[in-house]
Amino acid sequence: MAFLEELWSFDPSFGSAVGRHEYDEFLTIKDKKWKDSFLAFIKKHENRRVVEDEIDNSLIQNFLKESQWELEIFKSYEWDPSEYNVAASFDSIVSNRDLSEEQKSKILKRKLTFVPAYYQAAKENIHHPTKEHLELSIQQTKGLIKFFDAEVLKRANNQPARDAVLDYLAWEEGLLKNPEPVGGFRSFRIGEKLYNEKFAFNMVSTTTPKELYESALRQKKETLKTITTIAKALWSKYFPDKKSPDRDIDVVRKVIEKVSLQHTPAEKFVEEIKKQIPNLEKFVNHHKLITMDPSKPLKVRETPEYQQDATGMSIDSPGVFEPYRETYYNVTPPTKLSKEEQESFLREYNDYTLQILNIHEAVPGHYVQLIYNNQSPSVIKAIFGNGATIEGWAVYAERMMLEAGYGRDTPELSLMYWKWFLRVITNTLIDYGVHTQNLSKEEALRLMMEDAFQEKQEAEGKWNRAKVYQGQLATYFFGFSEIYRLREDLKAKNNNFNLREFHEKFLSYGSAPISTIRSAMINN
Asked: Which of helix, strand or coil describes residue 298?
């Protein structure tokens, strides 16, 4: 497609990331010349029919508008140093099993020549950064150096490239001590105006952030009622000789604390996740919830250090043009934490919550959705993925599995599911509160730990995440709510509603915005 080829000529790193390997040996150098050229590209294509398909064209136009907004208004390339990280781009070559060592060496040698200019542009771009993004970037750049030494430079030695990364790290560490040369630190809070604008691009919806926030508050009340009912029923099982507390919230807290003690050891955390995936696949297949592709196995691995951030666990999927490549389930084990932090982490991801996590990240959540995404007949729908669709599907998958009977005879699993869903709701409250209401760390931790029964380790990590990923935490609740509403509307409309057909039809639209998918499915 001419539009995509032109786009990738401006941004070869984007082309490489989606599996167009002719761009593998290049890096996108985002200097002033590049920004000016890319803005000209945007203006050339904005507000016109780039492709015939109406949905595809709307996705392209949203991408162009958001890109222009990011370059001219949001300008995170100025204040977020962690945007400059070449690790994933190099890893896609190193881990490509279809390339011989000779081919890898040839591509890496060429690609490494762009590294000095890449980081020089980064240093020229950074102005008035946030301390939080700088600290994240320092952590990831240290991981990048280890990755370069272990995997890249042994295949294609290039000292200037290594020196450029070391220089960038030293420069960042210098800024952490004295940020005045780049204008000092700014607040990580983006404010209501930018948050509302970013929300509109992220969700592609007429729903406002305030409306979503108010919906989350209502759902919080209803979810707490459900949790209370389950906890009261479990009280006698875990405290047979004790009278239950007078306050419902104390009953809930004590039961959750007791159930959370059932967890796998830290050193077996990754192994336990590997063991659970086949059981989830078996359940999905037996209940005919969605057609699985046995030729696309999921590979669980410890998260590479250069990818480790505040998210903990994630899916690393192949690009649209290379669906044959492996999909990784990145797991950051708690083994590097202190004993106290380990226990807090493992109580949060106890024997029951860990199953919900694996539904969300793997089957039938992110992993399954991204496989369908790469099989979408529309490359545009697959490439310009919408975060709310992706996260919304994963949260929807959790509810759908329990509705289908998963863990039906285990009230502890039900309790932990609703606690997990309360966490989804709280994500929205935290995200909105941090960036538009000046929510303090103390208030955020209280909201998570006291109101939503989260462990301190989880709450601390979520606070850090809210600071560096604005708007992302709201995509979970928004996406779930919209997908669930669509399903219920279609069920009411169709007496012959089939759940598997709904799932497969929904996912056939790739990762298009839910509002777009809704229009197509309701009309058809």
From this structure: strand
Question: What 3-state DSSP class applies to 513?
Answer: coil
Give 482-488's long-range contacts (Cβ < 8 A, gap of 24+): 482/205, 482/388, 482/392, 482/514, 482/515, 482/518, 483/389, 483/392, 483/393, 483/396, 483/514, 484/396, 484/399, 486/514, 486/517, 486/518, 486/521, 486/522, 487/396
Q: Which residues contact 210 (CB under 8 A, 6 or more apart)?
A: 432
Closest CA to 101 of 24, 21, 23, 156: 156
Q: How far apart are CA 68 and CA 80, in angstroms?
A: 17
Helix (H, G, I), strand (E, B), or coil: what is residue 48?
coil
Query: pTM for the complete prediction?
Result: 0.94
Query: Cβ–Cβ contacts within 10 Å for residue 409, how many?
Result: 7
Single out the residue of 360, 417, 356, 404 nearest to residue 231, CA to CA: 417
Is there a contact between 329 and 299 (Cβ–Cβ < 8 Å)?
Answer: yes
Q: Point out which residues pair with 328 in neighbouring strands.
A: 299, 316
In a domain, 168, yes or no: no
Q: How far apart, in whole angstroms, are the C-alpha atoms of residue 201 and residue 457?
A: 31
Q: Classify residue 87: in a domain, yes or no.
A: no
CA distance 413 to 427: 21
One-character DSSP codes across 305-339: GGG--SS-EEEEPPPTT-TTS-EEEEE--GGGS-H
Between the CA of residue 473 and those of 29, 284, 323, 463, what are the distances in Å?
A: 29, 27, 28, 11
With respect to residue 248, please indicate whether it lies within any of the assigned structural domains: yes
Amino acid at 380: I
Task: Give the pLDDT confidence score for residue 311 in this predicted structure.
Answer: 57
User: Domain tally for the chain?
Assistant: 1
Structural domain including 495 reads 209-263+346-372+379-523
DSSP state of 301: E
Q: What's at 491, amino acid-wise? A: K
Q: What is the mean pLDDT of the chain?
A: 96
Helix axes of 115-125 and 159-177: crossing angle, nearest 10 degrees: 20
Q: Is residue 54 within 8 Å of residue 108, measured between CB atoms?
A: no
Range 158-167 burial, b when 16+ CB lie within 10 A, else e? beebbebbee
Q: What is the pLDDT of residues 104-143, one digit of tens each?
A: 999 999 999 999 999 999 999 999 999 999 999 999 999 9
CB atoms inside a 10 Å sphere around CB 316: 20
Q: Which two tokens stand for residue 451?
A: 């109101």
What is the DSSP code string of 119-135?
HHHHHHH--S-BHHHHH
Does residue 177 sit within a domain?
no
pLDDT digits (tens, 9 = 90+) for 147-189: 999 999 999 999 999 999 999 999 999 999 999 999 999 999 9
Question: Which whole-number Å values give the CA distances from 471 to 191, 205, 433, 475, in the listed order?
Answer: 11, 14, 11, 7
